[in-house]
């Protein structure tokens, strides 16, 4: 049942994002920022944790999950280090995922022959 819940919640997030892209004039970059900020706000209000418990990877993999990771990092760092944690926490919490994305993206560019669109 975990796989089904992850599939439909992740699919719903992606479908709502696609509708937002097609029905508004928002640029994709702004929609991405909206998703990350929404994940942080849901994490700050305590609404993201029950969703994460229910949908697991269906909620943590989309950009909402990245926003929640940033929020958790900032929250924990502020608890431990005070005001400096506002600047340090998000970078520390999101660094592993960001580094992995860069490394695997680079490795993929070495394996595949990418070409510019015409």
Description:
The chain has one domain (about 1-110). The longest helix has 27 residues, at about 85-110. With about 120 residues, the chain is mainly α. It has helices at about 1-25, 30-45, 50-55, 55-60, 65-80, 85-110.
Question: What are the main properties of this structure?
Answer:
0% strand, mainly alpha, 6 helices, 118 residues, single chain
Strand content: under 5%
Intertermini distance: 44 Å
SS-based structural class?
A: mainly alpha
| Proportion of residues in helical segments | over 70%
Shape: globular
Task: Describe the sheet with the most strands.
Answer: none
Question: Can you tell me the residue ranges where pLDDT is under 50 for at least 5 consecutive residues?
Answer: none
Whole-number mean pLDDT = 93
Short description:
Keywords: Membrane, Transmembrane, Transmembrane helix. The protein is mainly α and 118 residues long. It is built from 6 helices and no strands.
Spell out the blueprint of helices and strands:
Blueprint (H helix, E strand, L loop, with lengths): L1 H22 L4 H18 L2 H8 L1 H4 L2 H19 L3 H27 L7
Pfam families: SpoVAC_SpoVAEB (PF03862)
Keywords: Membrane, Transmembrane, Transmembrane helix
Protein name: SpoVA/SpoVAEb family sporulation membrane protein
